[in-house]
Amino acid sequence: MGSDQLGELGKGAGKGGGAGGSVREAGGAFGKREAAEEERYFRQKEREQLAALKKHHEEEIDHHKKEIERLQKEIDRHKGKIRKLKHDD
C-alpha cells in the first residue's frame, strides 16, 4: 500500500474506499497534516513489523545452527563407536 492510493494528501477521502474522517474530508492544511501523520504512523508500524520479522528469522537461524551442531556431535559420537568396534576386532 502506498500513497498512490490516497490521492493527494489532505484533499479529502482517499481512494481506498474509506471516508477518511471529517478532518481529511475538509481538506486544507489540517487535512494535509492529518494525512501526513497517518502516513507516518503506518510507515512506522510497517518498520516495526519488518524488524520483528527480521528478528524472528535471525532467531530461527540461530536455533537451526545449534541443532546442526548438536546433530554433528551425535554423528561424531556414532563414528567413534564404529571406530571402537573396528579396533575390538
TrEMBL record:
Protein name: ATPase inhibitor, mitochondrial
Alphabetized InterPro entries for the sequence: ATPase_inhibitor_mt (IPR007648)
Domain notes: Forms an alpha-helical dimer with monomers associated via an antiparallel alpha-helical coiled coil, leaving each N-terminal inhibitory region accessible for interaction with an F1 catalytic domain. The inhibitory N-terminal region binds the alpha(ADP-bound)-beta(ADP-bound) (ATP5F1A-ATP5F1B) interface of F1-ATPase, and also contact the central gamma subunit (ATP5F1C). This dimeric state is favored by pH values below 7.0, and at higher values the dimers associate to form inactive homotetramer, where the inhibitory region is occluded, masking its inhibitory activity.
GO MF, one annotated term: ATPase inhibitor activity
Biased composition (Basic and acidic residues): 31-42
This protein's GO CC annotations: mitochondrion
Compositionally biased tracts (Gly residues): 9-21
Assembly mode: Homodimer; represents the active form and is present at a pH value below 6.5. Homotetramer; represents the inactive form and is present at a pH value above 7.0.
